[in-house]
């Protein structure tokens, strides 16, 4: 209500200095809370922005990576640029690569497997990149995901970062949902190696009590990032464009696709001030504890199988036909995924008002429906 009602538009600093300044402050707070290295924060020479979604953030980082590479190679070499991701990476990276002119045939989807917990290994990337380089192609961009969409898997950021550095690739860390967990010291380790990243993103609108839309994007080099996104028409010149070549203030229009923008900082500021770090850690830990309990109950019931060990709030398990029976009951809504040809049911404990009791109730519902399904098949 505050964000929409105030209708403040911090696209150039002069249009709303307080809103622009607040955004720089809350993205630094968020970065510190999840344990990001100093160099990704404004206070350390990097900086951040609040965008609408990871999808938008990814397009911006891909554009910056492309321009950085083509400034050295020449624009005519765009067809040589290759983007790397895993079969668990969010599909938005493929779409983003297409949008910035990378040929679809140059988008590499590296297979993951159960042996690495469905994480993308540095060895797999090294093998793929070495092959491409030998064929005259240029590795451009690598995505490491902390908490994949389907299974909640984690790619090892440090190992992938070292591979990216070896070839001058842009490393993006997509911590869309699981990044929130990193506010708890016991989860901070998953972002180890983030100092090797060119950009990191996470969505407070997923698991951080912040209303849609709000995606934090941090970059190590604001100059490289804004070079790909800035516009400088006469009518927008202000203190941020003071002709010195060095921005005197942040013009957030140069940090995103669109020009005008929402006052998202107020939402995140309210969440951070209202709950505080301790309150937010408690919130995350309550969900993780409920997910852990659910995973244990599933594992102890021999009719079910936990398909991938849980890391955060997502439990992936299986029993065919059960999903349809549970969802058609109208009492719970659960989604599925397919991994190694196996149909998997996913329970994500992420609702702002979800309590342990809801998890206990849904487990009773799952067991009841499982009995019906198994009886029908006389298993
Ligand atoms: N990356 C991951 C790992 C996700 O789980 C999701 C959404 O589910 C996205 C990116 C896309 O996020 P957004 O809807 O903010 O673009």
Automatic annotation (TrEMBL):
Write the record's keywords in alphabetical order, separated by commas.
Decarboxylase, Lyase, Pyridoxal phosphate
Q: Under which name does UniProt file this protein?
A: Uncharacterized protein
Give the PANTHER family listed for this entry. Answer: GROUP II PYRIDOXAL-5-PHOSPHATE DECARBOXYLASE (PTHR11999), OS10G0400500 PROTEIN (PTHR11999:SF148)
* A family per Pfam: Pyridoxal_deC
Q: Does the keyword Transport apply?
A: no
Q: Which Gene3D superfamilies match?
A: Aspartate Aminotransferase, domain 1, Type I PLP-dependent aspartate aminotransferase-like (Major domain)
Superkingdom of source: Eukaryota
Question: Which organism's genome codes for this protein?
Answer: Panicum miliaceum
> Could you tell me which SUPFAM superfamilies the record lists for this protein?
PLP-dependent transferases
Instruction: Identify the InterPro entries for this entry.
Output: Aromatic_deC, PyrdxlP-dep_de-COase, PyrdxlP-dep_Trfase, PyrdxlP-dep_Trfase_major, PyrdxlP-dep_Trfase_small
**Has the keyword Lyase been applied to this entry?**
yes
Residues that the record marks as modified (N6-(pyridoxal phosphate)lysine) are 206
Name a biological process GO annotation: carboxylic acid metabolic process
